[in-house]
Specification:
The complex is a heterodimer of chains A (231) and B (430).
Chain A lengths: L1 H18 L15 E2 L23 E2 L1 H11 L1 H4 L44 H10 L10 H14 L9 E2 L14 E3 L47
Antiparallel strand pairs in A: 2-3
Chain B lengths: L1 H19 L67 H4 L2 E2 L18 E2 L13 E6 L5 E4 H4 L5 E8 L16 H5 L2 E10 H7 L9 E6 L6 E5 H4 L4 E6 L2 E2 L9 E3 L12 E7 L14 E2 L5 E3 L7 E6 L10 E10 L5 E7 L7 E2 L1 E2 L9 E9 L4 E9 L8 H8 L12 E4 L5 E4 L2
Parallel strand pairs in B: 3-12
Antiparallel strand pairs in B: 1-2, 3-4, 5-6, 6-9, 7-8, 7-12, 9-10, 9-11, 13-14, 15-16, 16-20, 17-18, 17-21, 19-20, 21-22, 22-23
The chains are: A mainly alpha (231), B alpha+beta (430).
């Protein structure tokens, strides 16, 4: 009986495979090569903080605590009050500051991209500092320290007040000035016919016939779709 | 075959002109196809290396290039770290591939370009793990040994940094090929299809929209990969041109996202999180976004559009005499195969289709070649690629008109080089 039903099952399975292909979940463990891991056991690697605050850890911090940490651990590379720019090498023009200066803007020949003018979601500051900074000792900060540094940078950028205590419940609700500043990749934005003989060159009057903006056929599937967030 | 036509026609033209113009004493062909007119060679000597025993076999158990090739090296720019800057040892975050000194559709592993965000980690493959979790039936962990037991594939794909040939207002004549085009390379990768690993974990395709891919380096750099690409041609690679992936390319494991910007090819791959929301990571917000003049920025501009560049002759080359040269270059497209490359030697007025020196592959470099008889007069040479999706490589003006000058990256404009009467070659923007 058992053999019979197993046989039937495998016939059914192969029919299914032939007709529709196995659904991904059906293929789970097909090769029996992986080890399962519990969600607790993977926590030390589970560091993504999403724009809606998903996965933010317990903890808290404010501007005052953040300033002490910043001056000790970050200022050497990022300058006083986050306005030094990353002094990596003199060839890099436009090195970003962490903190917006009064006249910084994206609409300029020399746009100033920083947390205040450019960054999209506040939890991203936490995510990045925790995974990557300080540059020479990443992942050396406690969650409280990362909250404090996040509060410091948000307050220095004038996005929150200096007395705001930042934690997992309010960080995602802080609205970044440039939250609506991004659009999906809508290339192709240039279009040419591959002219072969007596072709017009850029700058010539007839050249315009070879330029056409046509962004209808872009790859929407690559788009990072904004989550609905109530700020 | 249409592709062959040009070469044949050029060969015919050479033959034809040899019979007619040559008689009239054409400068162009003297010394080219008439051995009678050629300068006589000095008597041949038997060199020392033909009269001695060579060096011992396998002197280097990992072989090295000829000592005469000692200048074929990656290009770096050391800043000399003036006051106020951090030291060179940590300031250097990229090295260019010497495109002008190598050829063909494969980049030698030692010359593959580098772009690192927090240096190159030294990873013990025995300890390395790949975690797959999130919207899956089972969260799983894979060792390198186990990853290598999965069914594997080999594919050639290019990797191009989105900042390669960065958009700039000016394009000075002394700009070199390696300087402008060195942030790209190509290799033949062996690994497992990403979809196979995601299916092994039992990915929930009804809910999954993105995969967060993350490296094991200090930066632990993460990017959001759309599910459509993850389940299509992405691969998790462990071999590069027949040997283990080099440390600076992601040893022991690298995510290959064919045709897409270099940054999303996560190196030292340690984690794949299946989600329904993008991460909006620092390197898909603060960096790797293309800003327009009006302050809006394009995000997740993954595709590297159809592009080509003449790699010989370029800035720094000097054509020694009028005569025959093979113009050579590379073409590639993140949207599929390169269909054709046209070359102009009169500054873009007239074009002819070049030949490929091998068959083009999807999302891989292909070398094009174009026979050229330089008449000794100033010329401007350029190339223009068209891919199988019918996208045509634009002029820089088309890009700057559409995007302004602040967008920095994803510049796939036509590159031109000028040749002066002395045979000296320089960068020029048309």
């Amino acid at each position: 009986m058992y053999v019979y039903s197993a046989l039937l099952k495998s016939i059914l399975a192969s029919l299914f495979l032939l007709s529709a292909g196995l659904y991904a979940e059906e293929r789970a463990g097909q090769y029996q090569l992986a080890e399962k891991i519990s969600s607790e056991a993977l926590q030390s690697w589970n560091i993504s903080i999403f724009p809606d605050g998903k996965n933010l850890p317990e903890g808290k911090g404010d501007h005052a605590e953040g300033k002490v940490l910043y001056d000790n651990l970050c200022m050497s590379c990022h300058g006083e009050n986050g306005k030094g720019g990353i002094k990596l090498d003199p060839y890099r023009g436009n090195v970003e500051t962490l903190v917006k200066s009064k006249n910084d803007t994206l609409v300029s020949d020399e746009p100033q991209k920083n947390i205040g003018t450019y960054w999209q979601y506040a939890p991203l500051i936490f995510d990045y500092i925790r995974r990557t900074m300080p540059y020479q000792a990443p992942k050396s900060l406690s969650n409280d320290e990362v909250y404090a540094l996040t509060a410091y940078l948000l307050a220095e950028n004038g996005i929150i007040s200096k007395d705001t205590l930042v934690d997992k419940n309010n960080l995602a609700k802080i609205k970044m000035p440039n939250v609506d500043g991004f659009i999906c990749d809508n290339r192709i934005d240039t279009k040419s016919a591959p002219c072969m003989k007596n072709c017009p060159l850029p700058g010539e009057k007839e050249f315009n016939q070879w330029i056409k903006i046509d962004n209808k056929d872009y790859l929407k599937s690559d788009c990072l779709v904004m989550p609905e967030i109530k700020f | 075959m249409k592709k062959e036509k040009n070469l044949i026609s050029l060969e015919r033209r050479l033959f034809f002109e040899k019979g007619t113009k040559l008689a009239a004493g054409s400068f162009l062909f003297s010394g080219l196809f008439t051995s009678l007119n050629a300068k006589e060679s000095v008597a041949l000597k038997v060199p020392a290396w033909s009269k001695s025993l060579g060096t011992v076999t396998a002197a280097n158990l990992y072989g090295l290039p000829s000592p005469f090739e000692k200048d074929v090296l990656k290009e770096i720019r050391l800043s000399g770290a003036p006051k106020g800057y951090v030291s060179n040892s940590i300031a250097l975050t990229s090295a260019n591939s010497p495109i002008s000194k190598i050829r063909g559709s494969i980049t030698p592993n030692g010359l593959f370009f580098e772009r690192n965000h927090s240096g190159v980690p030294v990873i013990d493959p025995k300890e390395h793990r790949l975690l797959i979790h999130g919207l899956v039936k089972d969260n799983i962990v894979l060792s390198m040994e186990k990853i290598k037991r999965f069914p594997s594939i080999e594919k050639s794909y290019f990797v191009e940094c989105s900042g390669n040939t960065g958009i700039s207002k000016n394009s000075p004549p002394d700009k070199t090929l390696d300087d402008m085009y060195g942030l790209m390379s190509s290799a033949s990768w062996i690994g497992v299809k990403l979809s196979v690993l995601l299916e092994e974990a039992g990915i929930d395709l009804d809910k999954a929209k993105y995969i967060i891919a993350e490296g094991a380096d200090g930066a632990t750099m993460a990017r959001t990969l759309p599910i459509s690409r993850a389940m299509d041609d992405c691969m998790v690679a462990y071999m590069q041109n027949g040997e283990a992936i080099r440390p600076e390319q992601g040893y022991p494991l690298k995510l290959i996202v064919p045709g897409c910007e270099g940054n999303i090819h996560i190196k030292w791959l340690r984690r794949l999180e299946v989600t329904d929301t993008p991460l909006f990571a620092r390197d898909e917000v603060s960096k790797y976004t293309d800003l327009f003049a009006d302050g809006k920025a394009r995000q997740s501009t993954l595709v590297m559009d159809v592009k080509s560049v003449i790699t010989f002759p370029t800035t720094g080359d000097r054509l020694p005499e009028a005569g025959f040269y093979e113009i050579r270059g590379l073409a590639w497209s993140g949207r599929g195969k390169v269909k054709k490359v046209d070359v102009s030697v009169d500054g873009g007025r007239n074009w002819e289709t070049a030949k490929f020196s091998t068959d083009p592959l999807s999302k891989a470099f292909v070398e094009f070649i174009y026979p050229w008889i330089w008449d000794g007069k100033p010329a401007v040479i350029l190339s223009r690629a068209v891919d199988e999706s019918k996208k045509v490589q634009p002029y820089f003006k088309q890009i700057s008109d559409a995007r302004g000058f602040n967008s920095e990256s994803h510049n796939n404009a036509i590159q031109s080089w000028s040749v002066n009467a002395k045979g000296e070659v320089h960068n020029v923007r048309i």
